Amino acid sequence: MTALRLTPLAASLPSTVPFVGPETQERSLGRPFRARLGANESLFGPSPHAIAAMAKAATEVWMYGDPELFELKAALAAHHACRPDHIVVGEGIDGLLGYLTRLMIAPGDKVVTSLGAYPTFPFHVAGFGGEIIRVPYKGDHEDPEALVACARAHRPKLVYLANPDNPMGSHHAGPVIEAMVAALPPESLLILDEAYIDLAPPGTAPMIAPDDPRVIRFRTFSKGYGMAGLRVGYAICAPDLARAFDKIRNHFGMGRIAQAGALAALADQDWLAKVRAGVAEGRDRLAAIARANGATALPSATNFVTMDLGRDGDFARATLRELTGLGVFVRMPGVAPLDRCLRVSVGDKAALDIFEDCLPRALQAAR
Amino acid sequence: MTALRLTPLAASLPSTVPFVGPETQERSLGRPFRARLGANESLFGPSPHAIAAMAKAATEVWMYGDPELFELKAALAAHHACRPDHIVVGEGIDGLLGYLTRLMIAPGDKVVTSLGAYPTFPFHVAGFGGEIIRVPYKGDHEDPEALVACARAHRPKLVYLANPDNPMGSHHAGPVIEAMVAALPPESLLILDEAYIDLAPPGTAPMIAPDDPRVIRFRTFSKGYGMAGLRVGYAICAPDLARAFDKIRNHFGMGRIAQAGALAALADQDWLAKVRAGVAEGRDRLAAIARANGATALPSATNFVTMDLGRDGDFARATLRELTGLGVFVRMPGVAPLDRCLRVSVGDKAALDIFEDCLPRALQAAR
Predict the structure, then answer these.
(1) What is the pLDDT of residue B20?
(2) Distance between terminal CA atoms of chain A?
(3) Which residues form the Aminotransferase class I/classII large domain (chains A, B) (predicted)?
(4) Does residue A3 belong to any structural domain of this protein?
(5) Which of A127, A342, B297, B320 is deepest in the core (most CB within 10 A)?
């Protein structure tokens, strides 16, 4: 250990992992999960056209991908009625959150987020020495008014809000977000994480001009488009901020298969519509399963359903442990009072049948 | 612009791109290149088994990849007769260089590299505020003795050496590197970039114990394995350093197709042997083409041939421009005196036929 000469900041960081993957759990269980419903992946999979495009790109993978992502950025710009210079593409929203934090946060700089919200953002902030200020949820929603009040008090450089929210599945209507943007102090850039927006009700996306310097929006091909394992996220923001990513990003980091798959997926909006319908149906079924077991499904604008088990975090954790032992992978919020819930991704019929069979047994055992 | 609140370090960085991609050049030319020989990609492509594995993984890409890369790390450990905890896998060597620099370099910390060596390392060092000290090449080789002398004088935290070297294609025998490791000051970690090692003569890889805290070795699936567009690199180093990457890396950054492709490619060492034979043949042909045009092919331990055109940088740049205009993508070293050369990747017969046809015309026009 004596030879390790990390920076003082790096030395101070824990080697923790933000999420333990299901494969790690499978290795300790000694068998694969029967139902993979914990990572909000899309069991409907990607568009068949995207699968075909990725298979074709595999034969061309001896070539680096275009470091400027010209075609993909042009297609995204057309899709969002903005210009390519409003778009940044990166290695998932996780990767882009890392780059943005690096651009904006030096040791001691402040950020504001919600207590219990997506943990990869604080992981990056801590990694660059930033100070994280957390605001509680209001019921099962992130609380825009409290986030604004906190930002006005602390003048952070970044404020994070996911809409729809993970892990609760709740959402705010677009105008609520617009009001929040208008009320933030001028020092604060809003990170609007819209990973689940493709699955949310109409009107969830706020009207924000791509040139608006107060907001950076994040989108992904991991959820609605069903390509979590491809690692393609993108941001929409003002061109000067978009350009700043070029100062630090891994310029050849987006591979050839990733670019081809994303391009084909974006072109197949019919597939996305089918996924949306399938997700709505799956949410209804998960809500019915929750009801049948005396739990309450929270309203969801995502591809998962958060179920209030009506007791405390210990009970929910015990239930989750039992489900894991029965071969069902689900997750749950990490902090009270959100941790009274389980978070179950929408699955196909086979996976939901298994969940329906196992949930009552798990609850029984946890009691 | 007024709203951008970058860190002072980020604000000071240029938005330059380390390499302009061939696609960017094709867009300004208005047509695709006829021969793509500039990025040291493998025109032999990846193993057919790897292509099949990637196509299969495309159907499973709705799942995140294993964030611990268990199977790939186990296979790499078996291949290198080390343990999985000696291995770090990341988004190409470029991505891993970024992580390592972030772990080790705070503003003002020093690094030593060679003047004209791989530019992505200084890109990352500048990005974290490090001070870059450059040592000239000795002839067409990086100069281990001068690098050691410079390190002894300046006590840098990192010393970079590529063996074989890019852009010159030269190499040192393993014992030269071993002597360099023994002579470095205790403050300095050697980054040994072995991107091209799969194509080098036997004896090029030094004997270094994976536990040796003085060295981190980088390898890649981009060159010999022919998967530049997949973005999979890895490091071999002491476990405490390997573990430190977990403090900051994009834990879900390695996708499902990338992991599957790398695993299958590693398993097909017969394919690598075929590529090695094809590369050797291609180097011979490129040397003959150089000779026939009054140029000198430098000895190469890589999948490219660096050709000394026998005049100055302006002449080489003019020749490169002409080749570009003729639809041939090649690159050249950026600094004198290395910039008297062109760097031409080994291609298949069709691509080398085009290069053979175009080189005399380009030289003629440049004269």
Answers:
(1) 85
(2) 46
(3) 37-353
(4) no
(5) A342
CATH number at residue B87: 3.40.640.10
Domain count, chain B: 2
User: How far A256 CA sits from the closest chain B CA (Å)?
Assistant: 5
What contacts A333, CB < 8 A, 6 or more positions away? A116, A167, A168, A306, A339, A341, A343
d(CA A257, CA A4) in angstroms, rounded, equals: 36
Q: Is B15 on the interface with A (CB under 8 A)?
A: yes
Is B243 exposed, middle or buried, given 0-12, 13-18 or 19+ CB atoms closer than 10 A?
A: middle
Structure tokens at A275: 């996924």
One domain for residues B159 and B180: yes
| Whether the predicted interface score ipTM is above 0.90 | yes
Q: Looking at the structure, tell me whether residues A92 and A165 fall in a common domain.
A: yes
pLDDT, position B15: 79
Domain for residue B100, yes or no? yes
Q: Is residue A180 part of a domain?
A: yes
**Residues A47/A274, Cβ–Cβ less than 8 Å:** no
Q: Is A104:A158 a contact under the CB 8 Å cutoff?
A: yes
Domain check: are A203 and A113 in the same one?
A: yes
- Structure tokens belonging to residue B282: 């291609």
Last residue in a domain, options B267, B284, B302: B267
The answer to whether A50 and A261 have CB atoms below 8 angstroms apart is yes
What the block records as the tokens of B172 is 């040192």
Which residue of B lies nearest to A59 if distances are taken between CA atoms?
A: B51
A window 67-106, beta carbon within 8 A of B: 67-68, 70, 91-92, 94-95, 98, 102-106
Closest chain B residue to A64, measured at CA? B229
User: What is the dihedral sign for C-alpha B249, A15, B209, B68?
Assistant: negative
**What is the CATH classification number for the domain harbouring B320?**
3.90.1150.10
The residue segments making up the domain with residue B200 are 48-267
Q: Are residues A98 and A203 both part of a single domain?
A: yes
User: Based on the domain organization, do B221 and B105 belong to the same domain?
Assistant: yes
What pLDDT score was predicted for residue B18?
67
Task: Tell me how far apart the alpha carbons of residues A29 and B29 are, in angstroms, rounded to a whole number.
Answer: 57
By CB atoms closer than 10 A (0-12, 13-18, 19+), residue B99 is buried
A317 located within any domain: yes
The answer on A243 and A138 residing in a single domain is yes
Would you list the DSSP string of B106-122? -TT-EEEEETTS-THHH
Q: Which amino acid is at B306?
A: T
Closest by alpha carbon to A334, among A189, A161, A117, A43? Answer: A117
Q: How far apart are the C-alpha atoms of B310 and B75, rounded to whole Å?
A: 46
Q: What is the mean pLDDT of each run of 10 residues along chain A (367 residues)?
A: 81 82 94 96 97 98 97 98 98 98 98 96 97 98 98 98 98 98 97 98 98 98 98 98 96 96 98 98 98 98 98 98 97 96 96 98 97
- Cα gap A317→A184, rounded to integer Å: 37
What single string gives the DSSP state of each residue in A317-358?
A: HHHHHHHHHTTEE-B--SSTTGGGEEEEE---HHHHHHHHHH
Distance spanning both ends of chain B, measured CA to CA: 46
Determine which of A103, A250, A275, A329 to mutate to test the interface with B (most B C-beta atoms within 10 Å). Answer: A250
